[in-house]
Amino acid sequence: MSDARTRLIYGTPEAPPPLRRLTAGPLSAELEEGNLRAIRLDGMEVIRAVSFLVRSRTWATLAPEISDLKVEQSDECFSVGYAARVRDGAATLDYIAHIHGEAAGRLTFDCAATAVTDFETCRAGFVVLHPLLGVAGNHVEIEHAGGGTEQGRFPSLIDPTQPMRDLRALTHTPVPGLTVTCRMEGDTFEMEDQRNWTDASFKTYLRPLALPWPYTIAAGERLALRVTLTCGGRPTRPARGDEAIRLDIGPPLAAMPPLALGCSPAEAAAALAHLAALRAAGIPGLVCRFDPRLGHGAAELARYRDLAAGIGAEVELQIVVPSLDAYAADLATAAETVEAVGLAPSAIMVVPAADLISTPPGSPWPQCPPLDEVYRAARAAFPGVRLGGGMFTHFTELNRKRPPLDLIDFVTFATTAIVHAADDRSVMETIEALPDIAASAHAIGGGRPFVVGPSAIGMRDNPNGLGPLPNPALKRLPMAAADPRQRGLFNAAWTLGFLAAFATGGAARIAVSAPAGEFGILDEEGVWPVFHVLRVAASLQGGEVRALHGTRGTPLAGLHVRCGRVVHLLLANLGDAVQTATLPSGFMGASLRVLDAQALLRGARAADAFTAARASVAQERLVLEPYAVAWLLRD
């Protein structure tokens, strides 16, 4: 792939790292940077990943320096060996890894690690990911590290803490006829529900969170760890091969919610130079942050006012409450300033500053003003304005600390796609977790509507550290604000998947991206591919959203909306391989627009590039290039 094509897709000329496929009879896995992912038997994913990971004192994942890599394969087995070094400043940890897979369905991953210097870390050891499909809500047999077994279930709704603790082995049945046992040795393991952070997996990891962290591995200290996977039987249901993905339309689910863009004062300032293009996008809302701790005042609110007036959008205001005891005065001052600049927010959301920091299970909760009193003070300061409560950070924090519902009108939270990993596949896999987040948000709301965002691939808020990581080189970096894919075709596909999941999941409003800046939809040279997706989706507000069957477990996302007599079908290829979809009945002769790498090479920086180019559907099968987006319309 040329640098130009790579940049158009990923927003950077840096190509994704290569994958190496390992096979032994029906057993297969992919080797990526020393770790295993997509472990399959007969093409059926049984374990999403087994990785030896080292996290810094701020939970950032440290990249290993791999040497002496040796890979051997035969029909009956494969073997991998390598040495690795992890550095965090002057601190160093070395480890030796050995991987062995057998056609009989057995796989072992051994690591022996030694701290070269004192090494401070939040986690150093194995992490095992179970996928969602065939797992969430299903039976599991649990063997405890302290002895004994019990029968349990993987949670359906997202667990706010650890659904399973004191683990030595887990046995589950992903499909009839196949059992998978994952045995973890060398430490005590426990599980967290990674759907909290939009990861599409249940994560089993060593060192319980109830123990102190960060902790220090002393110089010279050695760790010996092993994960063993044993597959019994064979799946009776075949995995999907290369056949076309058949799509069918289901029943009505919800009305298409309004869209919004996230906005900081800096983003508002940058966006004021692009009012014409932003008006053309037709996105009806801005979700704007007001944080007095950062010096926000009348000037910042005036920028929001001017931007909203210039593009014809309403403002929802996120207000950070800085004081522990003067919260009523904080909110009264904010309301006076809002009124003084002539800003009339359609809604406000309030969160105490203490709740912008994550409180993991087992950790003491920080001092925080009483939420009920904070919300009453917000009602008094902003009478008649819709009031939202919850979190401005991840769904995780909402799930762990839920607002008093009788005092608010709606529940709010946000997401990011790069909390734990930033490779392309992990980012796209986050779309799989969003329906479960929507279902869990409904349960938390107890009848109150929920809104989501501002969200993006990149990270706006880091409740687990000092802030999102700087990323001046625009790498694929976990926990970074600036992500290169924001400006590429990749983000257009990801955003359609995000919108489809929450629109079908019943969100009352979806906020994603920003007008300009690191999370923006345009810059001084024109619009980015995500602009086109948001422009079309915004035009569908109020339409009838219907279920789209056939995409689950595939790299395809879709949104079906009827607006009057016109039916819209938006499809996105979330993968790096060509996909073919068999369209639902009735789309022969429909108007078709496709946004792919070829379209971008022809030039799609103009605001109307996607809506102007059209063709006609001539066959029931639609071929989508990697990360392509298609828009079909029929009467």
What does this structure look like?
The protein has three domains: 3-233, Beta-galactosidase, Chain A, domain 5; 245-249 and 549-634, Immunoglobulin-like (Sandwich); 254-537, TIM Barrel (Alpha-Beta Barrel), CATH 3.20.20.80. Helix content is 20%, strand content 39%. Strand 24 (347-352), helix 6 (371-381) and strand 25 (386-394) form a beta-alpha-beta unit. The protein is an alpha+beta fold and 635 residues long. It is built from twelve helices and 38 strands. The protein is globular. The model has no long low-confidence stretch (mean pLDDT 94).
Short description:
The protein is an alpha+beta fold. It contains twelve helices and 38 strands. The chain starts with a helix and ends with a strand.
Overall pLDDT score: 94
Number of E-state strands = 38
Question: Which secondary-structure class do the elements indicate?
Answer: alpha+beta
Principal-axis shape equals globular
CATH topology of the largest domain: TIM Barrel
Cα-atom radius of gyration: 25 Å
The number of helices is 12
User: Strand percentage, roughly?
Assistant: 35-45%
Which architecture name of the largest domain does CATH use? Answer: Alpha-Beta Barrel
Helical fraction: 10-25%
Number of structural domains: 3
Which regions are unreliable across 5 or more consecutive residues at pLDDT < 50?
none
